[in-house]
Amino acid sequence: MGMPASVGNGRLAFKGPNFTAWLVAPDGSGFHQIALPDATATITPWSYSPDGTHIAYTGYERGDAGDYAIYVSNADGSDVTDLTSTYLDPAENNQGEPVWSPDGKTIACDNYSNDSSMQGIYLMNIDGTNVHKIADGGFPAWSPDGQSILFGAAAGEGNDIFLVSIDGSHLTQLTHTAAIESLPIWSPDGAQIAFIEGDQIAVMGVDGGHVNIITNMPNDGMGGFSPDWSPDGTTIAFEVFDDHSWNIYTVHPDGTDLRPLADGPGDEIQPVWSPDGSLIAYMASPEGSGGFGDTTGTYDVYMSRPDGIEQTRVTTDAGGAGGSLAWQPLPDGIS
Questions:
Q1: What is the pLDDT of residue 2?
Q2: What is the DSSP letter of 118?
Q3: How far is CA 128 from CA 81, 106, 302, in A?
Q4: Do 144 and 190 contact (CB within 8 A), yes or no?
Q5: DSSP string, 165-233
């Protein structure tokens, strides 16, 4: 199920009103809701399988805030399956952040539990079997070769970035500062790691060396979120807060060519590169949130060329909740 050499741009998945789940084509056609099981709602984030045939996401049963689980469906939203609540007691455990292995055979997620010994990074087969813990921490990210996982975890006075082999061995702490470091993401070639350090974007080598903070932006302590590498590894897109609203910027991994992609008067969040690297999709609201204000239900899907030219509105009055957007890879011959 790994990604082929040639890949196109499929549907966009996003969270709509009242935690509903929606799909839309880049040209705005085929806009429809995913039929979730009765009483089930979606949380964030989404994760498409490498071959684009399935979606993994976090869901919960309405009325029971203690029942978060990992769900998988076909790419068109059909055949929704709860993977984890059978194996991890939903009264005690909440799973999130599902991500597919590069070969499409395994899903990593994090688990938050009333039992501290159960908290951490878990792996499972794509049918939900063989659920097992490999490390303490959260926000897992697979290496491009599928052999290691990055994650963030508390360490000393801060939060640091760690690396572990998929069998749970070779646990390595990559950063050693008092700052809050989180949301690590591999470059497509596996040679570098981007992550959040405090409220800025940083890049380092895979051994934790050569750390370079590549942004230096005033942002009220709320910046550098949602970093996403371009498929060719030359550019990182991210969101930042500028005193009144969230905006999207791009920057090269060496810190050069920092530029705004979308910086209107409202909020622009959650940049996601198209699988072929030609476009960036994002969620936008005409309302400025003022940081953490409530703009739920005002977001639509937009997309732009990486240079910020030819911005296109994909949906109109979709009532998107923001914070959850994914772009389906479309291998040759798959529709």
A1: 42
A2: G
A3: 9, 9, 34
A4: yes
A5: ETTS---EE---SSSBEEEEEE-TTSSEEEEEETTEEEEEETTS-S-EE------TT-EEEEEEE-TTS
Amino acid at site 231? P
Render pLDDT for 293-307 as a digit per residue (tens, 0 to 9).
Answer: 556 668 899 999 999
Query: CATH class for domain 7-331?
Result: mainly beta
Could you tell me if 249 and 228 are in contact, meaning their C-beta atoms sit under 8 angstroms apart? Answer: no
User: Residue ranges of the domains in the chain?
Assistant: 7-331
Look-up of token digits 């920092």: 258
Mean pLDDT of the residues in the chain: 86
pLDDT tens-digit map of 42-92: 666 689 999 999 999 887 765 555 568 888 989 888 888 888 877 777 667
pLDDT given at position 1? 41
Separation of alpha carbons 283 and 275, rounded Å: 17
Low-confidence ranges of the chain (pLDDT < 70): 1-5, 36-45, 61-67, 90-91, 218-224, 288-297, 322-323, 333-335
Count of positions (residues) in the chain: 335
Long-range pairs, 193-198, Cβ under 8 A, ≥24: 193/150, 193/161, 194/227, 194/229, 194/236, 194/253, 195/152, 195/161, 195/227, 196/224, 196/225, 196/227, 197/224
Q: DSSP letter at 153? A: E
* Among 267, 264, 261, 263, residue whose Cα is nearest residue 281: 261
